Amino acid sequence: MKATAKLRDYWWNDSEFLAGSDSGFHRALRNDLEDAKDIQKAFLPKKDLSIPGLACETFYRPVQSIGGDYYDFVPLQVDRWGIAIGDVCGKGIGAALLMASLQASLRAQAMHAYSDPSTLVADVDRLVLATSPKHLYASLFYAEYDAATRMLQYVNAGHNAPIVLRWEGRQYRVFRLEPGGTPLGLLELSHFNSQALQLEIGDVLVMYTDGITDAENSERVWWGQERLEKLLRGCRDCTPAQIVGRVLDEVLTFTKDGPQRDDMTLVVVAVKDQDV
Fold first, then answer.
1. Does residue 242 contact residue 55 with C-beta atoms inside 8 Å?
2. 220 CB-near residues (< 8 Å, 6+ apart)
3. Residue 153 has what pLDDT?
4. Which of 34, 50, 56, 85 has the fewest CB atoms within 10 Å, counting from its CB?
Protein backbone atom coordinates (compact mmCIF):
# COMPACT_ATOMS: atom_id res chain seq x y z
CA MET A 1 0.00 0.00 0.00
CA LYS A 2 1.32 3.43 -0.86
CA ALA A 3 2.18 5.80 1.97
CA THR A 4 -0.33 8.40 0.82
CA ALA A 5 -3.10 5.81 0.96
CA LYS A 6 -2.03 4.87 4.48
CA LEU A 7 -2.27 8.50 5.49
CA ARG A 8 -5.85 8.67 4.29
CA ASP A 9 -6.66 5.46 6.15
CA TYR A 10 -5.05 6.18 9.50
CA TRP A 11 -4.81 9.89 10.15
CA TRP A 12 -7.82 11.50 11.76
CA ASN A 13 -9.42 14.71 10.50
CA ASP A 14 -12.37 16.83 11.55
CA SER A 15 -14.58 15.77 8.63
CA GLU A 16 -14.47 12.18 9.86
CA PHE A 17 -15.41 13.36 13.35
CA LEU A 18 -18.30 15.49 12.12
CA ALA A 19 -19.55 12.66 9.95
CA GLY A 20 -20.67 10.97 13.17
CA SER A 21 -23.21 13.71 13.90
CA ASP A 22 -26.52 14.11 12.08
CA SER A 23 -27.73 17.41 13.52
CA GLY A 24 -28.62 20.16 11.06
CA PHE A 25 -25.87 22.36 12.46
CA HIS A 26 -23.21 19.70 12.04
CA ARG A 27 -24.39 18.83 8.53
CA ALA A 28 -24.13 22.50 7.55
CA LEU A 29 -20.72 22.80 9.17
CA ARG A 30 -19.56 19.62 7.48
CA ASN A 31 -20.70 20.94 4.10
CA ASP A 32 -18.94 24.26 4.71
CA LEU A 33 -15.73 22.45 5.62
CA GLU A 34 -15.93 20.32 2.50
CA ASP A 35 -16.40 23.46 0.38
CA ALA A 36 -13.45 25.11 2.12
CA LYS A 37 -11.38 21.97 1.56
CA ASP A 38 -12.14 22.04 -2.17
CA ILE A 39 -11.27 25.73 -2.37
CA GLN A 40 -7.97 25.20 -0.58
CA LYS A 41 -7.12 22.33 -2.91
CA ALA A 42 -7.71 24.68 -5.83
CA PHE A 43 -5.09 27.04 -4.38
CA LEU A 44 -2.40 24.38 -4.72
CA PRO A 45 -0.39 23.99 -7.94
CA LYS A 46 -1.52 21.39 -10.45
CA LYS A 47 0.17 18.01 -10.19
CA ASP A 48 1.10 18.02 -13.88
CA LEU A 49 2.98 21.32 -13.60
CA SER A 50 5.99 21.42 -15.93
CA ILE A 51 9.04 23.53 -15.05
CA PRO A 52 12.01 23.44 -17.46
CA GLY A 53 14.98 21.69 -15.91
CA LEU A 54 13.13 20.55 -12.77
CA ALA A 55 11.29 17.40 -11.72
CA CYS A 56 8.88 18.03 -8.84
CA GLU A 57 6.80 15.96 -6.44
CA THR A 58 4.65 17.25 -3.58
CA PHE A 59 2.63 15.98 -0.64
CA TYR A 60 0.15 18.02 1.39
CA ARG A 61 -2.03 16.79 4.24
CA PRO A 62 -3.71 19.12 6.78
CA VAL A 63 -4.42 17.74 10.23
CA GLN A 64 -8.01 18.96 9.86
CA SER A 65 -10.06 19.44 6.69
CA ILE A 66 -8.21 22.66 5.99
CA GLY A 67 -4.92 23.91 7.32
CA GLY A 68 -2.22 26.52 7.36
CA ASP A 69 0.55 24.89 5.33
CA TYR A 70 1.28 26.39 1.94
CA TYR A 71 3.40 25.67 -1.11
CA ASP A 72 3.43 27.18 -4.56
CA PHE A 73 5.22 27.36 -7.90
CA VAL A 74 4.85 30.82 -9.42
CA PRO A 75 5.73 31.59 -13.08
CA LEU A 76 7.82 34.77 -13.30
CA GLN A 77 9.67 36.15 -16.28
CA VAL A 78 10.91 33.88 -19.08
CA ASP A 79 12.82 30.87 -17.68
CA ARG A 80 12.27 31.99 -14.07
CA TRP A 81 10.03 30.49 -11.42
CA GLY A 82 9.15 31.37 -7.85
CA ILE A 83 9.10 28.43 -5.43
CA ALA A 84 7.49 28.84 -2.02
CA ILE A 85 6.64 26.85 1.08
CA GLY A 86 5.13 28.26 4.26
CA ASP A 87 3.59 27.33 7.57
CA VAL A 88 1.03 29.43 9.44
CA CYS A 89 1.10 29.05 13.22
CA GLY A 90 -1.95 27.21 14.44
CA LYS A 91 -4.37 24.93 12.64
CA GLY A 92 -7.83 24.94 11.15
CA ILE A 93 -9.91 27.75 9.74
CA GLY A 94 -7.94 30.74 11.05
CA ALA A 95 -4.66 29.31 9.78
CA ALA A 96 -6.24 28.48 6.42
CA LEU A 97 -7.53 32.04 6.00
CA LEU A 98 -4.10 33.49 6.69
CA MET A 99 -2.57 30.95 4.31
CA ALA A 100 -4.93 32.11 1.56
CA SER A 101 -4.02 35.74 2.27
CA LEU A 102 -0.31 34.88 2.18
CA GLN A 103 -0.61 33.11 -1.16
CA ALA A 104 -2.61 35.95 -2.69
CA SER A 105 -0.13 38.55 -1.41
CA LEU A 106 2.90 36.65 -2.68
CA ARG A 107 1.42 36.03 -6.11
CA ALA A 108 0.34 39.67 -6.41
CA GLN A 109 3.81 40.93 -5.50
CA ALA A 110 5.48 38.41 -7.82
CA MET A 111 3.75 40.12 -10.76
CA HIS A 112 6.06 43.11 -10.22
CA ALA A 113 9.73 43.19 -11.14
CA TYR A 114 12.02 42.99 -8.09
CA SER A 115 15.79 43.25 -8.17
CA ASP A 116 16.04 41.01 -5.12
CA PRO A 117 13.59 38.50 -3.57
CA SER A 118 14.23 39.98 -0.12
CA THR A 119 12.37 43.11 -1.21
CA LEU A 120 9.43 41.01 -2.39
CA VAL A 121 9.30 39.12 0.91
CA ALA A 122 9.49 42.39 2.86
CA ASP A 123 6.48 43.71 0.94
CA VAL A 124 4.56 40.48 1.57
CA ASP A 125 5.47 40.76 5.27
CA ARG A 126 3.93 44.24 5.46
CA LEU A 127 0.74 43.00 3.80
CA VAL A 128 0.46 40.02 6.16
CA LEU A 129 1.16 42.21 9.19
CA ALA A 130 -1.56 44.67 8.16
CA THR A 131 -4.25 42.06 7.52
CA SER A 132 -3.74 39.39 10.20
CA PRO A 133 -4.37 39.31 13.97
CA LYS A 134 -1.26 39.69 16.09
CA HIS A 135 -1.32 36.12 17.36
CA LEU A 136 -1.09 34.66 13.85
CA TYR A 137 2.07 34.69 11.76
CA ALA A 138 3.67 32.52 9.10
CA SER A 139 7.10 31.19 8.24
CA LEU A 140 8.00 31.36 4.55
CA PHE A 141 10.76 30.07 2.32
CA TYR A 142 10.69 31.80 -1.04
CA ALA A 143 13.15 31.14 -3.87
CA GLU A 144 13.51 32.28 -7.46
CA TYR A 145 14.96 29.72 -9.84
CA ASP A 146 16.57 30.68 -13.14
CA ALA A 147 16.25 27.70 -15.47
CA ALA A 148 18.88 29.05 -17.86
CA THR A 149 21.63 29.44 -15.24
CA ARG A 150 20.34 27.02 -12.54
CA MET A 151 20.83 29.78 -9.99
CA LEU A 152 18.59 29.64 -6.91
CA GLN A 153 18.19 32.94 -5.08
CA TYR A 154 16.22 32.62 -1.86
CA VAL A 155 14.92 34.17 1.34
CA ASN A 156 14.11 32.10 4.42
CA ALA A 157 11.73 33.97 6.70
CA GLY A 158 11.83 31.80 9.81
CA HIS A 159 11.05 28.51 8.05
CA ASN A 160 12.54 25.06 8.56
CA ALA A 161 15.78 25.08 6.58
CA PRO A 162 15.27 23.36 3.21
CA ILE A 163 17.97 20.87 2.28
CA VAL A 164 19.92 20.61 -0.96
CA LEU A 165 21.73 17.30 -1.50
CA ARG A 166 24.55 16.93 -3.99
CA TRP A 167 26.32 13.64 -4.68
CA GLU A 168 29.90 13.82 -5.93
CA GLY A 169 31.28 10.38 -6.67
CA ARG A 170 30.91 8.40 -3.45
CA GLN A 171 30.66 11.55 -1.39
CA TYR A 172 27.69 13.82 -0.76
CA ARG A 173 27.28 17.41 0.29
CA VAL A 174 24.39 18.86 2.25
CA PHE A 175 23.43 22.52 1.95
CA ARG A 176 20.98 23.82 4.55
CA LEU A 177 19.18 26.97 3.45
CA GLU A 178 19.00 28.56 6.88
CA PRO A 179 16.67 31.42 7.92
CA GLY A 180 17.71 34.98 7.14
CA GLY A 181 14.74 36.71 8.71
CA THR A 182 11.80 36.35 11.09
CA PRO A 183 8.40 34.84 10.25
CA LEU A 184 5.97 37.08 8.39
CA GLY A 185 3.50 39.15 10.39
CA LEU A 186 5.43 38.74 13.61
CA LEU A 187 7.30 42.05 14.05
CA GLU A 188 6.60 45.65 13.06
CA LEU A 189 10.12 46.12 11.71
CA SER A 190 11.63 43.07 10.02
CA HIS A 191 14.67 42.69 7.82
CA PHE A 192 15.21 39.88 5.34
CA ASN A 193 18.42 38.68 3.72
CA SER A 194 18.61 36.92 0.40
CA GLN A 195 21.22 34.34 -0.50
CA ALA A 196 22.10 32.43 -3.65
CA LEU A 197 23.11 28.86 -4.41
CA GLN A 198 24.36 27.61 -7.76
CA LEU A 199 22.53 24.36 -8.42
CA GLU A 200 23.93 21.54 -10.52
CA ILE A 201 22.32 18.75 -12.53
CA GLY A 202 21.46 15.96 -10.09
CA ASP A 203 20.95 18.23 -7.08
CA VAL A 204 17.83 17.57 -5.00
CA LEU A 205 16.04 20.31 -3.06
CA VAL A 206 13.83 19.11 -0.20
CA MET A 207 11.41 21.55 1.45
CA TYR A 208 9.09 20.61 4.29
CA THR A 209 7.00 21.91 7.17
CA ASP A 210 7.51 20.87 10.78
CA GLY A 211 4.57 18.47 10.60
CA ILE A 212 7.10 16.11 8.98
CA THR A 213 10.00 16.43 11.42
CA ASP A 214 7.82 16.93 14.51
CA ALA A 215 5.79 13.76 13.94
CA GLU A 216 5.69 11.95 17.30
CA ASN A 217 5.74 8.32 18.33
CA SER A 218 3.95 6.89 21.38
CA GLU A 219 6.85 7.98 23.62
CA ARG A 220 6.36 11.60 22.45
CA VAL A 221 9.70 11.55 20.63
CA TRP A 222 9.95 13.57 17.44
CA TRP A 223 11.03 11.97 14.18
CA GLY A 224 13.38 14.93 13.75
CA GLN A 225 15.59 16.53 11.13
CA GLU A 226 18.49 14.16 11.82
CA ARG A 227 16.39 11.15 10.75
CA LEU A 228 15.17 13.07 7.71
CA GLU A 229 18.70 13.91 6.58
CA LYS A 230 19.92 10.36 7.19
CA LEU A 231 17.12 9.01 5.00
CA LEU A 232 17.79 11.58 2.26
CA ARG A 233 21.49 10.68 2.11
CA GLY A 234 20.41 7.19 1.07
CA CYS A 235 18.21 8.47 -1.76
CA ARG A 236 20.83 8.78 -4.47
CA ASP A 237 19.32 8.19 -7.94
CA CYS A 238 15.79 8.29 -6.49
CA THR A 239 13.11 10.28 -8.27
CA PRO A 240 11.28 13.02 -6.34
CA ALA A 241 8.22 10.75 -6.15
CA GLN A 242 10.32 7.95 -4.67
CA ILE A 243 11.83 10.31 -2.11
CA VAL A 244 8.41 11.55 -1.03
CA GLY A 245 7.20 7.95 -0.69
CA ARG A 246 10.22 6.92 1.37
CA VAL A 247 9.88 9.88 3.74
CA LEU A 248 6.19 9.22 4.33
CA ASP A 249 6.75 5.51 4.85
CA GLU A 250 9.49 6.22 7.42
CA VAL A 251 7.31 8.73 9.28
CA LEU A 252 4.41 6.27 9.41
CA THR A 253 6.69 3.49 10.64
CA PHE A 254 8.12 5.77 13.34
CA THR A 255 4.71 6.96 14.56
CA LYS A 256 3.23 3.43 14.29
CA ASP A 257 0.21 4.88 12.48
CA GLY A 258 -0.50 7.23 15.39
CA PRO A 259 -2.64 10.34 14.96
CA GLN A 260 -1.39 13.20 12.83
CA ARG A 261 -0.79 16.22 15.08
CA ASP A 262 0.14 18.95 12.61
CA ASP A 263 -0.30 19.91 8.97
CA MET A 264 2.26 18.15 6.78
CA THR A 265 3.80 19.38 3.54
CA LEU A 266 6.72 17.97 1.60
CA VAL A 267 8.10 19.35 -1.67
CA VAL A 268 10.96 17.61 -3.50
CA VAL A 269 12.60 19.19 -6.55
CA ALA A 270 15.35 17.55 -8.61
CA VAL A 271 17.52 19.45 -11.09
CA LYS A 272 17.72 17.71 -14.43
CA ASP A 273 19.15 18.35 -17.87
CA GLN A 274 16.60 20.29 -19.92
CA ASP A 275 17.59 18.34 -23.04
CA VAL A 276 16.67 15.00 -21.49
1. no
2. none
3. 97
4. 50
Which residues 6+ apart lie within 8 Å of 62 measured at CB? 13, 40, 68, 69, 91, 96, 263, 264
3-18+27-45+53-270 CATH choice from 3.60.40.10, 3.90.1300.10, 3.40.50.300, 3.40.50.720: 3.60.40.10
Q: Is the pTM of this model over 0.70?
A: yes
Rg (CA), the chain: 19
Amino acid at position 188, single letter = E
Closest to 271 (Cα-Cα) out of 31, 71, 58, 55: 55
Closest CA to 80 of 161, 142, 162: 142
Over 50: is that where the pLDDT of 1 sits? Answer: no
Order across the sheet with 80-88: list the strands. Answer: 69-75, 80-88, 138-146, 151-157, 194-198
